[in-house]
Amino acid sequence: MNEAKLFSEGSATDLVCRGWSRERVIDATGIDPGYHNSSMKADLKGVDRTAYKIEHVRQRVSPEAVRDVLERYAACDLDKAGVLEHLGLHDAVNLIKLSELYAALDMGEEFRDADRRSRRGSMQSGMIAQYGTDNPFKLDEYQEKAAQTREERYGARYTMAEGSVFADEARKKGRATRRSRERYTRVLTPDEIARRSARTAKTVRSRYGVDHVSQIPSAREAQRQRAEQYGKQWAEKARQTNIERYGFPSWTMGDEARREISKRMSSTRVQRQSLATKKRNATLATSFSEDALYELLVEYADKHGMTVVRQHRDEKRYPFAVDFYIPERDLFIELNGSWSHGGHWYEVDREMDQKTVQTWRKKGEKSQYYLNALGTWTERDVRKRAAAREAHLNYVTLWDGSEALADAYLWFALGAPDGHDWEREYSWLDLPESLTDLREDLGKQVQQWADIDVMTAGSRQISWLARSGTWETFYARELQMWEADEVHHRKWGRLRARLLANRLQYLGRLPESALEVVRGLAISGEIRAYSTFVNTAMLAVLDKYEPTHMYDPCAGWGERLLTCAQRGVTYTGTDISEVVVAVHQGLINRLGLTDVSVSLGDSATRDMRGGTHEMVLTCPPYGDTEIYTSQGAENLDDEAFLEWWKQVVSMSVAPSTRVFAFQISEKWRKRMSAVARSALGEQWHLADEIDASASRNHFQRAKSRQKHRGETMVVFERL
Predict the structure, then answer these.
(1) Same domain for 446 and 342
(2) Do the domain assignments include residue 164?
(3) Structure confidence at residue 267 (pLDDT)
(4) Short-list 479, 495, 513, 370, CA closest to 8
(5) Do residues 535 and 559 lie in contact, with contact meaning Cβ atoms separated by under 8 Å?
(6) In what order do the strands lie in the sheet with 684-691?
């Protein structure tokens, strides 16, 4: 991966690379990266996690915010973990050192200064807490102890007191200092000054042939070096003085000074002067993303014989400085890429937006940045949108302010169309014809899988064939998300724009089918898609134990039903979803399958102890990782879920049953195996654990790979 290229912000891979813990990733995205990110090994291969964290901060966090958290760290308002959290690296695994991070951001010296101030502040706080003062030597008891030590070692309580071994030397030095000061501080008479100047000029002319010593090249260089040396010394002295007086290297860093400066800079006169200077110097643009977008717009305009104006004002129609304006198209383009723009238009009636307002307002109690952001998002942007609506402007607003400029590239890929983005975000996003009715197009694509011959199908084709009957349920959430096309409280833009931009970025093209769209929703991290059952480990179990009848307590999407039909094994299944059971029956009828059946019910209460099946093989829910129904065991807490699983095991085993096998994620393998062992009893033993995370067609333990597994087929055998 290119060092400067980041995964989609907020996706599971992005959060993992930023060091988020497994639990936080699951909470934020619904996607389980696995133990030690085992399920994402392929996606994360070759990614330098340290470089990724640096690029995340460089591209997604404003320089002002980076400096703000550093100042809070220096003021002991944040510890190192708090700094990382504010930079989006919270709960970080494999923490990056702050010194390393800030050095990479060309702020190494600023961090070292802040770190010294933080250490000093922490030490002073500890001193105050323990002694009531920032310096223990200010206390009388310490002064007394120091005086006693001087008296014992040097003969007197004070250096210049009678009897001190340093007294004579100290007095001589004091007299010499006073004479020196008197010599150089005495005011000379005009005649003395004239005589001194004449003698100096005569000496310089006789020795060097010039009128003044500054005309000598060597003297000029020496003077420059002294100025540089003493300049640094005086700068350091001034810095130390400011720290002692104000607690900062510069008084401008203090809250009071900042308020005063802000007050001055916000005056109409200063603002007018600043704007005039920036226009004169062509330096109105201030962000990297704006510069990058400007270059893209110039390239586009040159190709089409047009021009681009930055910071254009139209007092009658749009009394704001629009980021970019193309006169030939009368096109206004705003880049609302900063987090302070909220990632979408503010809607006062939207519950999510009100929660954000409350959050920012609370954070604004400690940071002015959030109060400024509130003003930008809920007031200024609202006025800008209203002005564009009133004037019915040709108006395009882009929301991705990262280096990727994902929605900008999407806009260019679609031909840079006109827009009325004051109506709705991405009004210019005309979908390809194949995506206008996603459900209809997806149905046509999926139905092609229905023609697969179950008797000759491979593992992947078995999954496709099962999907041909379950697709409406399997993809129901993706279809709903696509139709809703909602904004997100943490991500920029609307769903469709975000997804299409993501696919354009990583595929180099827009999705060409509905199937690519629904798959892209999972790949981009917009949703945690339902997982499919890969039957390679199941085939290994069937090959070894050769059952004639198998019971499946959690029938799922139908892959195990079709596998049994292919192998000529009688299949009995149970599932709690009425929709899934109906779909299974449709598959059975359509394919003309015999000796296979699926019943509606809870496998924890369906009593199969009187059955004739030799094998139980299933893939139970992975806790609450995937929610299939509102009634299923996936809605239970961990303790209740394991109790449900114990009941499933107990009710599934008949006297004829010789094998009990289940495929499970690494997160649940040990706990569910322990429950199964207990429920099965002493007559059963753990026969094998097959790594089901990779494609296999043979039966083996592969214990050396166990640490890296995503899924495992656990096999118990009756003794």
Answers:
(1) no
(2) no
(3) 58
(4) 495
(5) yes
(6) 596-600, 570-575, 549-552, 615-618, 659-665, 711-718, 684-691
Q: What pLDDT was estimated at residue 287?
A: 59
232 Cβ contact partners less than 8 Å away, ≥ 6 residues apart: none
Cα separation, 106 vs 70, in Å, equals 13
> In which residue are the tokens 């070692």 written?
153
117: closest CA among 74, 81, 70, 76? Answer: 74
Report whether pLDDT(94) > 70.
no
Within 10 A of 216 (CB to CB), how many other CB atoms are there? 16
In a domain, 168, yes or no: no
Claim to verify: residue 700 and residue 554 sit in the same structural domain: yes
pLDDT tens across 402-436, in order?
A: 888 999 999 999 999 999 999 999 999 988 776 77
Convert 350-410 into a string of H (helix), E (strand) and C (coil). CHHHHHHHHHHHHHCCCCHHHHHHHHHHHHHHHHHHHHHHHHCCEEEEECCCCCCCHHHHH
Q: What percent of the chain has pLDDT over 70?
A: 86
Which 3 state secondary structure label does DSSP give 325?
Answer: strand
Domain end (from 253, 277, 303): 253
Task: Answer yes or no: do 219 and 332 share one domain.
Answer: no
The residues pairing with 615 across neighbouring beta strands, listed in sequence order, are 550, 659
The residue that leads in pLDDT, 633 or 441, is 441
Q: In whole angstroms, give the CA distance from residue 111 to residue 20.
A: 23
Number of Cβ within 10 Å of residue 364's Cβ equals 15
Residues 645 and 497 in one domain: no
Residue 719: closest CA among 683, 686, 670: 683
What mean pLDDT, rounded, does the chain reach?
83
- The predicted structure's pLDDT at residue 699: 32
**Predicted confidence (pLDDT) per residue in 343-362, tens digit:** 999 999 999 999 999 999 99
Q: Which two tokens stand for residue 434?
A: 């194949």
pLDDT band of residue 494 (cuts 50, 70, 90) is: very high
Q: Tell me, what's the pLDDT at 625?
A: 54
pLDDT for 279 equals 56
> What's the CATH number where 710 sits?
3.40.50.150
**Distance, CA of 711 to CA of 714 (rounded, Å):** 10
Domain that holds residue 310: 287-413
Q: Say how far apart CA 521 and CA 503 lie, in whole Å.
A: 9
Span of 173-187, 465-479, 496-510 with lowest mean pLDDT:
173-187
Confidence at residue 225, expressed as pLDDT on a 0 to 100 scale: 78
Of the residues 230, 253, 276, the one at which a domain ends: 253
Whether 452 is covered by a domain: the verdict is yes
Whether 704 has a pLDDT exceeding 50, the answer reads: no
550 and 695, same structural domain?
yes
Is 360 in the same domain as 226?
no
The SS3 of residue 232 is: helix
Please check the confidence at residue 304 and state whether its pLDDT lies above 90: yes
3-state helix, strand, coil in the chain (%, to 5): 55, 10, 35
Residues with Cβ within 8 Å of residue 509, at least 6 apart in sequence: 503
Domain count along the chain: 5
> Do 580 and 447 have their domain in common?
no
Q: Are residues 485 and 618 in the same domain?
A: no
Residue 214 pLDDT level (bands cut at 50, 70, 90): confident
User: Can you give the CATH number for the domain in which 325 is found?
Assistant: 3.40.960
Encode burial over 371-409: b for 16+ CB neighbours within 10 A, e otherwise.
eebbebbbeebeebbebbeeeebbbbbbbbbbbbbbbbb
Q: Would 559 be classed as within a structural domain?
A: yes
